[in-house]
Each structure stands twice: as C-alpha cells, then as structure tokens.
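Example protein as discussed:

>
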Amino acid sequence: MKGSNGDAAISELARRILRSTGVKIIHDGGLTQEIEALASELSDKAPKIIFGIESEIGDSADIYFLNMNSQNGIISQEAPISLETVWIKGGAEKWNFLKNQIVELGRAGYPGCIGCAGPAASEPWDESISRDGKN
C-alpha cells in the first residue's frame, strides 16, 4: 500500500496478522459477518495459510487484534499507550482496507515469499515514527 501513514500501519498490521498463527479480533459486533468472510476468503485464496481467526464481541468501538506469536494492533481514534501495538487511526471504515491487505498478502504467499510484501516488510517497524506521521 502506498500513500498515507495510515496505509503503512495497515500494511504492518496485515503482515503481523499473517506472521501469527491466528488472531482474535475484538469488536462491537458489527464485524462478525465480515470476519467470517475474511476467514473464508483467506481459505479460498491462500489455502496454504493455516490460520485461525476468532471473533469476540466487546463493548468498545475500537477494533483490537490479538495476534498469536506476534505483536498486536488496534483500529482506534486514540493511540494506545504501548508502542508495541500498531495503531491504525480511525474507526470501522479502516476494516476493509486491512482485510484487503491481509488477503492480498496471503494470496501472494506472505510470509513465506521473498519480497512479495514490498520493501517496507524487510525494515523494522517503528511505531513512534508512524504515530508522528513521518513514515
């Protein structure tokens, strides 16, 4: 993805999700069918990926991504305290961008491919720079 700082954060979270062995997505209930569709689409378009997606309904408008064996992420209007968490500024409108990036990378073979996630994938992620808007 190219463009805004949010695009870089979306790409980073998509890579983190695909590097993990599964993800729990905590949301307000509005994404239940979307999350099921993502699991199905990944299974169809990237069948080599063995990956679990769990949906959990919470009481916040924020969308949390709890990754197995990888650092977490959040879509939220407010930045999380931890710089270990990738922050995508926004609300549920960012979901489709993230979902599409996950599917595109999965179809390309990420994380098992070389270079398919672009040059940024080989660079260490710097959350503080991302939040400052300088990436």
